[in-house]
From TrEMBL:
Residues 53-294 form the Cellulose-binding Sde182 nucleoside hydrolase-like domain. It comes from Novipirellula artificiosorum. InterPro entries: Ribo_hydro-like, Sde182_NH-like. This is Cellulose-binding Sde182 nucleoside hydrolase-like domain-containing protein. GO terms for molecular function: hydrolase activity, hydrolyzing N-glycosyl compounds.
Amino acid sequence: MMNRFARIIELAMCILVAGGTMPWRKLPACDEPQAKAQSQVETQSQAGSLRHRVVVSTDIGGTDPDDFQSLVHLLVYADVLDIEGLISSPYGEGRKQDILDVIDCYDKDYAKLKNYSDKYPMPDALRAITKQGEIEVAPYAGVRSSTEGSRWLIECAGRDDSRPLHVLVWGGIEDLAQALHDAPDILPKLRVYYIGGPNKKWGPNAYQSIATRYPKLWIIESNATYRGWFTGGNQAGTWGNKEFVKQHIVGHGALGDFFNSKMNTIKMGDTPSVGWLLHGMPDDPSQPGWGGQFVRAWTRPYSRFERLTTPEDQMEVFGVLELVLPLGDHVPDKPEAQLMVENLAIPGHMPGDGTVRFRFCPKAAKTYQFRLSSNVPSLDGKTGGVKSVAPEAKAAQNADPSFPNWWTDHPAPEFAESEHHGAKSVNRWREDYLGDFANRMSQCK
């Protein structure tokens, strides 16, 4: 009787660990096959009982290859999520076809995946919900015109379903901004997880439009926390970024080989948004989970200068800098201007009031240098800069009531991985989420 009781306790501990509900890393005391099976059962039962509705907006094929990896990860968990939309929203060359290329690999592995769960969606069903979104950076107004992607987002949000719609933004936030502009009544149905940081750098106008017009939107703004998926944590042996791909991805079906062909090391910077739905408390971002742990947002950082700034001027990293500069005399009939900073050429907005306006979002805490290029004599060749700095830890104590449902990276030092604040709230789970991903990929082998 005692041996049986002890075994029940042991298995209960395995379930807790594998389910991600307690902060242990490995399962050395548990039977390995049982631990592997229980990990899959717990992942499926947790997500399956809730069946989260999901729309993904991705810049796959654009400026960063890691979206291919994140989409592979999403598809091997497609049996525990209700995926309702896959929207191409690139900065650069990416298009809807890049999503379809990953679905083609899923199609090749589909028969094997079905052996494990009959809830995997048919490949053609995924193709049918793949849509083309905005392919250009939003203008100063934050919106341009509706797209197939923004219209599909509105359609999904408008369905007669009591569950919220989780919108995972892996790239441009333009389609979300457009959908809210065209159908603001969908706002209460949305739960947004936004991988910001560099993506905000590419699209500050759409972001600023949302922050200004829809402050009551439910959103997690992950500007640095997401980096914990591939930065820090246990990187020894099989847990190393390259070694994990070598051991658990390469040779694991068409999806595994496709994953490796795009990048032979773990990046998957958008995957924490999926991890949040697999293991965590999606309704309470202050609680720990695979997608991180967040705090209520303080006033969204926005710095406006009516002059060209210098490196002595400071702003908060990931905030929005707006420069409003006078055009002066001898303005041509069609004035044009660009602000050059790193690999960006930011077009100036001419509102017709004798000024030009630029918006810039720094993706790192450092000093940036600017240079203006213009057919306006008073602007051409002018230089400037700005210093971006990390938020202070006390910022977490200043939640802005104007943003009641807005969450962002935890600024406390104990949550930081090097300069990436919040990242340790993800990489503390590294062995858990990678171990579970390895189990999933084994189904494709």
